[in-house]
Design brief:
Blueprint (H helix, E strand, L loop, with lengths): L15 E7 L5 E6 L2 H13 L6 H8 L3 E8 L5 H18 L17
Antiparallel strand pairs: 1-2, 1-3
């Protein structure tokens, strides 16, 4: 679903892993969070105010090409499990997302918001 037009109540208030996908080029941003609904709302808020730290995500959002998908809800996950899940997806990304990922530099990133 397009991030710009998604509704917060469509996302669980649970920990998990999500992707933001640029529909123009197929690249994805992989993220993990303790609260899916709050994190996606935070991305949307930054994008709506044109203050997102990723210029590529901002451009995709501005042109109605940024979609959001929940990859996995992990109800009882701790931060370590979430970080590990995100790291594994980023490492497997060449096989799962052949167009590439936007957050390649985050392979060693270990902060779930």
């Amino acid at each position: 679903m397009l991030l710009k037009f998604s509704h917060d109540d469509g996302f669980p208030k649970k920990p998990g892993v999500y992707i933001l996908e640029n529909q123009r080029n197929g690249k994805v941003y992989i993220g993990c969070t303790q609260n899916m609904r709050a994190r996606i709302a935070a991305h949307r808020s930054l994008l709506l105010s044109s203050r997102h730290y990723s210029m590529e995500l901002q451009q995709a959002f501005d042109t109605d090409r940024l979609t959001v998908k929940v990859l996995a809800v992990i109800p009882h996950a701790n931060k370590q499990l979430l970080r590990e899940s995100e790291r594994l997806l980023i490492q497997a990304s060449p096989y799962l997302f052949p167009a590439g990922i936007i957050n390649k530099k985050l392979i060693h990133y270990s902060k779930c918001k």
